[in-house]
Amino acid sequence: MLTLPSFEWARPRTVEETLAALSxxxxxxxxxxxxxxxxxxxxxxxxxxRLVVHIGGVxxxxxxxxxxxxxxxGALVTLAELARHPVVRRDFPSLARAAGLVAGPQLRxxxxxxxxxxLDTRCTYYNQTYFWxxxxxxxxxxxxxxxxxxxxxxSRRC
Length: 158
Ligand SMILES: Cc1cc2nc3c(=O)[nH]c(=O)nc-3n(C[C@H](O)[C@H](O)[C@H](O)COP(=O)(O)OP(=O)(O)OC[C@H]3O[C@@H](n4cnc5c(N)ncnc54)[C@H](O)[C@@H]3O)c2cc1C
Description:
- The protein is an alpha/beta fold.
- Helices cover about 35% and strands about 15% of the residues.
- It folds into 3 domains: about 1-60, Uridine Diphospho-n-acetylenolpyruvylglucosamine Reductase, domain 2 (2-Layer Sandwich); about 60-120, Uridine Diphospho-n-acetylenolpyruvylglucosamine Reductase, domain 3 (2-Layer Sandwich); about 120-158, no CATH class.
- Strand 6 and strand 7 (about 155) form a beta hairpin.
- The chain is globular and about 55 Å long.
């Protein structure tokens, strides 16, 4: 079973509280929104923050606003909301369709727009357990001294 590393936890309710929490430990903090990418990465020891700031409860960031100057989307709008929102579907059908095609319903219900845009690297050699990565001598992106890349027939050091 993969476990989470130890970290401190903050759960701000406003943008102001979020900014305060983020400035607490610069460089040692991880933002978590829906957690669909960040939580597995924590379990894989790809992130080892001292502080995790869960912004999922910051209501100010959960909005779809149809304004005169355009459509305003909050970072915490979920992919499911984007996919079904009538204004997004009417004015930005490609966006609604793309959001509706991501993964499955559970991930779209939890995954946010901000998390999708700020997603960490996704790579065969990176998104693996610590044990798996240690067998290859790690990758430059985390813990290693050289990067891995995949060619059609083989895997080799970049
Ligand atoms: C099985 C699977 C299939 C997927 N398929 C697709 C696909 O087909 N197409 C596609 O585009 N995506 C795909 N994804 C990615 C998916 O869209 C993202 O996992 C999801 O949108 C991330 O949102 P989240 O709120 O869960 O982010 P989290 O996991 O909470 O965070 C992801 C990253 O973004 C950062 N972050 C989150 N919110 C903010 C913010 N407001 N400000 C600054 N940084 C922030 C976090 O620190 C973290 O590094 C897939 C994911 C999975 C697990």
